[in-house]
Amino acid sequence: MKIFNSLKSRIIISITGIVIVSLSITTFFFAQKAKHELSNAIEENALNLLKATKNHVVSQHNSILYHKAAMLSRRKRELKNNTTIAFAIINSAYRKYKNEQISEAAQLLSPHYQELHEHAQTVCALG
Questions:
Q1: Percentages helix, strand, coil for the chain, rounded to the nearest 5?
Q2: d(CA 18, CA 30)
Q3: Which residues contact residue 104 at a Cβ distance below 8 angstroms, ignoring those fewer than 6 apart?
Q4: Total domain count for the chain?
Q5: In 96-122, which positions are buried (b, 16+ CB within 10 angstroms) versus exposed (e)?
């Protein structure tokens, strides 16, 4: 093996070996660092996704609570209005009865009574 006996070939082989070892070590450490950074990025992305999901759930929960309160408030106003109307009709009929403007039998046939009766049936049907 005359090739390995010359100084030039030994230097070339040594330099080639050093370059190969250096590249291997650099590649290994770079791969480890890239793997670590990728793992951190995936973990951070997962945490951000969880936070976004939590914020969405909290937002939807708050929206449901707001709409529930608004619906209850609206229904309360509607019931109060219906009650006020019913009392007005009853008071009007009572005043007319007291003033002897109408008899009890005529009261049952009055349009207000029929309207009140129909409205009561509608409200009961809606539940």
A1: 90, 0, 10
A2: 18
A3: 97
A4: 1
A5: beeeeeeeeeebeeeebeeebeeeeee
**Taking the chain (127 residues) in consecutive chunks of 10 residues, what is each chunk's mean pLDDT?**
70 93 94 94 96 97 96 93 85 78 62 62 60
Query: Which amino acid is residue 47, in one-letter code?
Result: L
Give the predicted TM-score (pTM) of the model. 0.50
Nearest to 107 by CA among 118, 94, 122, 121: 94
Whether the CB-CB separation of 10 and 4 falls below 8 Å is answered with yes
DSSP letter (8 states) at residue 95: H
* Token pair in block for residue 95: 């005043």
Give the number of other Cβ atoms within 10 Å of residue 61's Cβ. 10
Rounded distance between C-alpha atoms, residue 29 and residue 33, angstroms: 6
Could you tell me if 95 and 122 are in contact, meaning their C-beta atoms sit under 8 angstroms apart?
no
The pLDDT of residue 117: 61
Give residue 28's pLDDT. 94
